[in-house]
C-alpha cells in the first residue's frame, strides 16, 4: 500500500503553512520594480483605501486596486483586482485570489516606454502559490500566463551578466512503496530578465534539471515521473544555492 506524505527535507517552515487553503503567509513590506538592468526595490506606497481593499502604486502611472478582502490572520487574499494605467482600467479579474504578503511581489518590469510586464502572486493553497504574468502593450494586456513563484530576488545564476529568477511548481512529496521511497519530478525553471522582457532560459533549465534528476523530463511538474529521494536531494541543494546568491 502506498503512503503519500509531505516531503520534509527542505522548506519545512514554509510547508507547515499548508494546513488548508486558509493557511498563513508573511506580510508584504515593499514591492519590487524591475528595470532593464535588473530588479530594484522601490519604497512601498501601499495604502488601505477602504475596509477590505488595498491599493499598490507601482510606477509609470500604473497601480493595482485590490478588493473583496479575506483576512486569515497572517495573510490576506483579494478576489477582485483592477490594474490601472493613468487612471484607466486596463485589466480586471475576479476569478482568482491574489496575495500581497510576499516581499518579492508584485513585480513591474518596463520593457520600453509603452510596454510593461507585471507579475502577481496568486493563492493556490494548500499547494504552492503561483504567479500570474501579464504583458502590457499600450493600454492592453497582450499576454497572460502562469508561472512558478520565485525562490529569491533576481541574481546572476549562470555567470552570463544577465540576472535570472528561478522557481519550482509545487512542494515536494514522498511516496513510499515497500523499500522504495520516491518523489515526483519537480523541475526548477530559470528565467532571464532581458532587455526585451522576461524569458524562460531553456538552456539553463535543461542543464540544471539534468544535473539534478539525471534526465530532463520537461518544464512541468510530473507526478507520474518518480525520482529516488536520494537523487532528488540535489534539488534541495540547488534551491539553497539560489537563496544564497
Task: Annotate the secondary structure layout.
Layout (H helix, E strand, L loop, with lengths): L2 E4 L5 H4 L15 E5 L2 E5 L11 E4 L4 E10 L4 E10 L2 E6 L4 E2 L7 E6 L2 E8 L7 E8 L2 E9 L15 E5 L4 E5 L2 E6 L2 E7 L2 E4 L1 H12 L8 E7 H16 L1
Parallel strand pairs: 2-9
Antiparallel strand pairs: 1-14, 2-3, 4-5, 5-6, 6-7, 8-10, 9-10, 10-11, 11-12, 13-16, 14-15, 15-18, 16-17
Descriptive keywords:
single chain; mainly beta; 2 domains; seven-stranded mixed sheet
Question: If you had to describe this structure to a student in words, what would you say it looks like?
Answer:
- 13% of the residues lie in helices and 45% in strands.
- It is mainly beta.
- It has two domains: 1-17 and 153-245, no CATH class; 33-150, no CATH class.
- Strands 2, 3, 8, 9, 10, 11 and 12 form a seven-stranded mixed beta sheet that branches.
- Mean pLDDT is 83; it is low at 1-48.
Q: From the alpha-carbon coordinates, what is the Rg to the nearest angstrom?
A: 19 Å
Biggest beta-sheet profile = 7 strands, mixed
Question: What general form does the structure show?
Answer: globular
What is the H-and-E element order?
EHEEEEEEEEEEEEEEEEHEH
Mean pLDDT: 83
Share of helical residues: 10-25%
Structural category: mainly beta
Brief rundown of the structure:
The chain has 245 residues and is mainly β. The protein has two domains: 1-17 and 153-245, no CATH class; 33-150, no CATH class. It has helices at residues 12-15, 202-213, 229-244; strands spanning 3-6, 31-35, 38-42, 54-57, 62-71, 76-85, 88-93, 98-99, 107-112, 115-122, 130-137, 140-148, 164-168, 173-177, 180-185, 188-194, 197-200, 222-228.
